[in-house]
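Quick question, first post here. What does this chain look like in 3D?
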Amino acid sequence: TSVNATATSAPLFQDNCVVTGNDDRPLRVRSTPGGRVIGSLKIGANIVAYGIEQDNYGNDWTKIKYKMGYGFVSTQFVSCG
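> Answer (accepted):
Ran it through. Tokens below.
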């Protein structure tokens, strides 16, 4: 089976991502896309991205490895590559 990738689709796995931001406030990590806050990451922190999921409002959330499991951070504050 072939998968048609569009310009907006993200690779399933990237291990060279970093947290970005427009100020020095930590980026909140959530348990589910748009869900409750389970922690935070400093701007500039290295993260491993496992893909992108959307919340009920159509916002993109990047699934990341976080502590002993996974978390979600707003995709607009993640830079990979």
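The first strand starts at residue 14 and ends at 19.
Residues 1-7 have pLDDT under 50 and may be disordered.
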